[in-house]
Design goal:
Layout: H1 2-23, E1 33-40, E2 43-47, E3 50-54, E4 57-61, E5 64-72, E6 81-87, E7 92-98, E8 107-115, E9 122-127, E10 133-136, E11 139-143, E12 146-149, E13 154-161, E14 168-174, E15 178-185, H2 191-198, E16 213-217, E17 224-228, E18 237-242, E19 246-253, E20 256-262, E21 265-270, E22 274-279
Parallel strand pairs: 1-7, 9-15
Antiparallel strand pairs: 1-4, 2-3, 2-5, 5-6, 7-8, 8-15, 9-12, 10-11, 10-13, 13-14, 16-19, 16-22, 17-18, 19-20, 20-21
Length: 291
């Protein structure tokens, strides 16, 4: 009887370890990584177009970059979801999507862990929703994207808000020696914001779209330039721009420019491979990067 009790306790402890591993740092001993995906409603998960069954799923996977797509049973009523994500060795990449009838009424979060060379800590937060205001443990930090070096270890609450969108709260665990990257999108709840833009009425803030000017891509060696999720070479690649193409930029920071590389999509490029060709009427700069 005592042996049975010990076995049961052991199973419970293993289950707890898996749960906390999923939310924070997974207990992986191999060079593989782990991908966890959950959604509401239930969806079919495709990784690089390969069917991985219904959510939720947790699978060991080789480190690398993957295209993850979530397809609901009723595609006429519920929007699909698709993003490029990175899985790093010995860590878990966590995806959670709450799908609405359109991509703008859906919210999601992608959490990626990356081992650093030293014992420092780093937290990076970006939102696909424009003008998302970031709070950490209740304290206002600014407009995303933002990065923080040497943030205290332990649990932190991230909160993002934007006019017309449902606020989003995410609890994360910062671990020494790791960079924690949080990418997210808020769900649109006030359709009037979208209607105003479609009718050409800018919502009360600025008279322009915030563009600072135009850049000419000059990357003749490769013929293209990487677009990154953050203004650093360690930022995830989210797209590419061909050499000779012109793009609008909205912010410049530490030699990086935030640009619109596809309609409605922004990322960061290195200023080493871009030249200013035109200035526009605009306001202040913000903070972002990518190469």
């Amino acid at each position: 009887m005592k042996k049975i009790i010990i076995i049961i306790i052991g199973i419970v402890l293993i289950g707890a370890g898996i749960y906390f591993g999923r939310d924070f740092l997974p207990k992986l001993t191999s060079s593989q990584g782990e991908l966890h995906v959950e959604s509401q409603p239930e969806t079919t998960v495709f990784v690089n177009d390969e069917n991985k069954e219904k959510t939720p799923i947790t699978q060991k996977i080789d480190p690398g970059q993957y295209e993850v797509k979530l397809v609901p049973d009723d595609q006429a009523a519920i929007s699909t979801w698709q993003q490029s994500v990175t899985v790093n060795p010995g860590t878990q990449t966590f995806i959670k999507a709450l799908l609405g009838d359109t991509s703008t009424t859906s919210s999601w979060e992608v959490i990626i862990l990356e081992k650093l060379s030293g014992n420092e800590t780093e937290l990076s937060v970006s939102s696909a929703t424009d003008a998302s205001e970031l709070y950490i443990n209740g304290n206002f930090k600014g407009t995303s994207p933002l990065s923080f070096q040497d943030i205290a270890e332990g649990e932190h609450e991230i909160r993002l808000t934007a006019p017309g969108f449902a606020e989003k709260k995410i609890k994360v665990n910062v671990t020494q020696g790791y960079k924690l990257t949080v990418r997210t999108q808020l769900a649109l709840v006030d359709e009037s914001q979208m209607t105003q833009e479609q009718e050409g009425e800018k919502p009360a803030q600025a008279e322009d779209d915030g563009a600072l000017g135009t850049l000419l891509i000059t990357s003749p060696t490769t013929g293209w330039l990487r677009v990154r999720s953050e203004p650093t070479t360690s930022g995830e690649e989210v797209g590419r721009i061909d050499d000779g193409e012109k793009v609008t930029y909205f912010t410049d920071k530490d030699g990086w420019y935030e640009v619109e590389y596809e309609e409605g999509k922004k990322g960061w490029i290195s200023g080493d491979y871009a030249e200013k060709v035109e200035e526009t009427n605009s306001s202040q700069n913000s903070t972002n990067n990518n190469e």
